[in-house]
């Protein structure tokens, strides 16, 4: 929880992350809202301005609220290890300063002189800072942490007033619980005794291991010597056997070489015989080839003569057929001329008959017309 500088408002923060603002005049609830995450520290400047350190997963944020509304644009992102555990506010006309302690033992100062939040860090404790307090004049800061230590620091820049020159004592005071010191000394003594015991045990184990190592080395050397002697005897035996095998192989190689020479001679003789037989066969084939060439030439000439005779005969037959075709064509031409002449005569006769018939029809029509005129004339005359 935290009061505002004028003690008009009390702000409380619950484990459920809910922030409540209370009026100190009648202790009525002014506002109630959630911090939107895990929060352990809160501070207020009054008039609905509240700051809280909020952790969401692996993120930690210094968050501002105004009249219960989260001012997301003014969030100040922190490292995940800088989750705030305690917070104290100091207000002055020019700006608001907030000192907060995180779970890593760092003291973080937030101030907004220019309207933009900025921060500075100071490492103090070895564990989380559980309480931060600023003196009324703003020149002294006290912190307490889970490590059992309390720091009292001289502060500059928080208050508008100058720090008094008559203030005595050190700029920084560290107070630690004597019981904690005695406890740490007892722990150190116990650890020293344990270290001495471990050293003696290690030396004893080292001596024992060294003696065992020497014994094992000697045993290994003896076994190696025995193996070397055994391998040496095996090597000599194998070398003798190898010499015997080498001599036997040399003898076999000489015998095989003699056999190879004999086989080569036999193959050479056989090759000569085969070459002579092939030469004789080649001569016979050449004579046969010449005979075949002569026969081929004779057959070619005979075929040429037969072909020429057939061509001459075919030319005569073609000439005769052409003459016959010409005679037939002439007959057809004469027939066409006769037919054309006959057709023209028939056309002329038919034309004359048609002209005669037309003249007769005209004459008959003329007579009928005259008779009709005569009848009309008589009728008109009778009227």
Key terms:
flat, coiled coil, Wdr65 protein, single chain, WD40/YVTN_repeat-like_dom_sf, Methylamine Dehydrogenase, Chain H, alpha+beta, 26% strand, four-stranded antiparallel sheet, 17 strands, five-stranded antiparallel sheet, 383 residues
Account of the 3D structure:
By secondary structure, the chain is an alpha+beta fold. It has a domain of 175 residues: Methylamine Dehydrogenase, Chain H (7 Propeller). It is built from one helix and 17 strands. Strands 5, 6, 7, 8 and 9 form a five-stranded antiparallel beta sheet that branches. Strand 11 and strand 12 form a beta hairpin. The longest helix is centred in the C-terminal third of the chain and has 205 residues. The chain is flat, with a radius of gyration of 71 Å. The termini are far apart. About 2% of the residues have low confidence. Keywords: Coiled coil. This is Wdr65 protein.
Sequence-ordered SSE layout with sheet pairings:
Blueprint: E1 2-3, E2 9-13, E3 18-23, E4 29-34, E5 38-46, E6 49-56, E7 59-66, E8 69-70, E9 76-78, E10 84-91, E11 96-102, E12 106-111, E13 118-123, E14 129-134, E15 140-145, E16 149-154, E17 172-176, H1 178-382
Antiparallel strand pairs: 1-2, 2-3, 3-4, 5-6, 6-7, 7-8, 7-9, 10-11, 11-12, 12-13, 14-15, 15-16, 16-17
Keywords: Coiled coil
Coiled coil: 181-241, 275-342
Protein name: Wdr65 protein
